Amino acid sequence: MKKALAEAGLSEEEYKEALELSKQGILDYLLKNGGELLVEMFAEDIMACIEDPDIPTCLWAIVSSLPAGKLLKLGSKLPKITKAIWGIGTFLDKVAGAKKKLKKFDKALERAKKATKCLTDDGKGGKAGKSLTNATATATATKSGLDGATGAGMLRTGSGSWLQAAAADDADLGCGPYIWVPFRPGVDHEPQGDIPADMGEPFGAFLRPGEYLFVVRLDGSLRAVHVDDMRAVNGGAGHTSLGERKPVLMAGEFVVGPGGVFTRIENFSGHYMPLDKEGFTPLKDVTRAAFLAHGWVFTEKAWKYYPGPKRP
């Protein structure tokens, strides 16, 4: 809970205050601010005013329409009642703010609850992949041929600003991107040849029509090559050639039509076989972020999710 409070920017005292305030309604407010008699006399009318877009005016209309006898009963309470009525707007703003804080806390708490799942390895019979978290950074860095410190730094950036910047404000990135390890059980193990380390479409390049293979590396950078260009260099090259046989955040294909327009973008890769996993950032969001960071427009309608091979 402390971690969730810290992420939500709340102290324990602020959380308790927000929780208490979020439970209060108009009647509670009036009872605490000198409107006890008003509540006693007109509770039903007050509740009807809650649906009114201008609650203070609605309540004041109730008071103003009272016959002289009832106004006299309010007597000395009237100044406090008046002040309470015109303070309702401020009260409602505070309640809304409290609920917003609690919502932020609830999301942080949910992410904290997912932490254990994010740190697990769900591979059976071998390493299937890991979440992009600090706890798995060193192990994944070792697989990637990186030193522990460098690998951990790259992994943190993988689930950081480049991804969040491309996501909607309310997007749930879950545990962050999942790491896809090549040559694990259940994927294609056919060796793929090498290609030059500097081979790949540059940032913001205008693409000629055709089919391309791409990978999103652990630091969020994208590497893509036209299939014809790749085959011309090495006929046996593929996704693991692009990824240098290291783990990636995403691997797939895209097709470019006339005018450099993306007509299909999908997560198909026999050697990495990335699939959406519950609790982790959707592959579409990972791909969108990488495309935008590479200076390309991600065409939403071009996205085609490949669900994996059909099981017999």
Descriptors:
312 residues, alpha+beta, 5-stranded mixed beta sheet, two-stranded antiparallel ribbon, 14 helices, elongated
Tell me what you see in this structure:
This protein is an alpha+beta fold. Helix content is 46%, strand content 10%. It has 14 helices and 7 strands. The chain has helices spanning 2-8, 12-22, 26-32, 36-49, 55-64, 68-74, 78-86, 88-118, 134-144, 148-158, 161-164, 227-233, 239-242, 283-293, and strands at 129-131, 178-180, 210-216, 222-226, 250-256, 262-266, 303-304. The strands form 2 sheets. Strands 4-3-5-6-7 form a 5-stranded mixed beta sheet. A two-stranded antiparallel sheet has the order 1-2. The chain is elongated. The chain starts with a helix and ends in an 8-residue tail after the last strand.
Summarize the structure.
The chain has 312 residues and is an alpha+beta fold. 46% of the residues lie in helices and 10% in strands.
What class would the helix/strand composition place it in? alpha+beta
Strand order of the largest sheet: 4-3-5-6-7
Order of helices and strands: HHHHHHHHEHHHEEEHHEEHE
Provide the gyration radius in Å: 29 Å
Number of helices: 14
Number of strands: 7
What low-confidence regions span 5 or more consecutive residues with pLDDT below 50? Answer: 120-128, 133-161
Percent of sequence in beta strands: 5-15%
What separation lies between the terminal Cα atoms? 45 Å
In percent, how helical is the residue content?
40-55%
